[in-house]
Design a protein that fits this description.
There is one protein chain. With 307 residues, this protein is an alpha/beta fold. Helices cover 41% and strands 22% of the residues. It is built from 13 helices and twelve strands. Helix 11 crosses helix 12. Pfam families: PBP_like_2 (PF12849).
Length: 307
Amino acid sequence: MSGYKNFLILMSVVFIFFSCKKNENEVAGVETILKGKATIYVDETVLPIVEDEVMVFESKYDAEFSLVSKSEAEVLNSLYNEKAKIAVLARDLTKKELKLFEQKKIVPKITKFAIDGIAFVSNKSNNDTLIALKDVIGFMKGERNSKIKGLVFDNPNSSTVSYMNNLAGLDALSDKDIYSLKTNNEVLKFVSENDGMIGVVGVNWLSQPEPSMESVISKINVLSVQGLNKPGYYSPSQNDFAEGTYPLLRDLYIVNCQGTSGLGMGIASFAAGDIGQRIVLKSGLLPNKVPSRRLNIISGKSNKEKE
């Protein structure tokens, strides 16, 4: 009988041990705002800044992100279909889009963290580094001029196409002398090899080019743009972003549809916080809130006083 009791006690101890181990593993796997694994769907035109934010976040916390780079339309579809829970977009959600989420009983938490822009680029052989926005829009509507042989976009579903179509009042791009490739880097490469073509890209790919793209960037001009019915030409620089003079500005947002206190909340708070805003500033884009600077004033005696 005593042997049977000992067996029961042993089995109880083993059961309690594995139950505790299971609970520890479950707790370890719970996602919090600073710990766990998550996937972020990213508008391809702003991938570099998101990579920077994620890299620093991961270095500070026990978190791991997978980045899925897609066109704006694909990112939005992934959110609607609940395939994506966290996304980065180059615009805010519209009232119609928010209504769609409301119908699914989803309340997206939207955090603005940076100001980006759309840039026009040309081949280095083109000595004219100025372009009027009205000429680009006119070209999109079928008006031809000697300055532009063709427009080159990344892909038909991208945020740059959507942005420019909205400005031009168009539903879709024309097939005549307007080309769609796949990525911003492909646009830059195409323009560097073809005189007279104007590329339309996200500024982030110019402010943070990949090492392999540096030779390509050296073969293109970034054009200064004149706004609609406005004097002056302005470049896609931090200074002109800050002054609001560059005519092709857009805001960057983190859209969090997790509905819980997970990594979506963590990365959004981080990107909008002091460290995240400094990362944006260093990237060449404009932070939503310019980080404050601390000056340490050291009071000391002058040489005359020391004597």
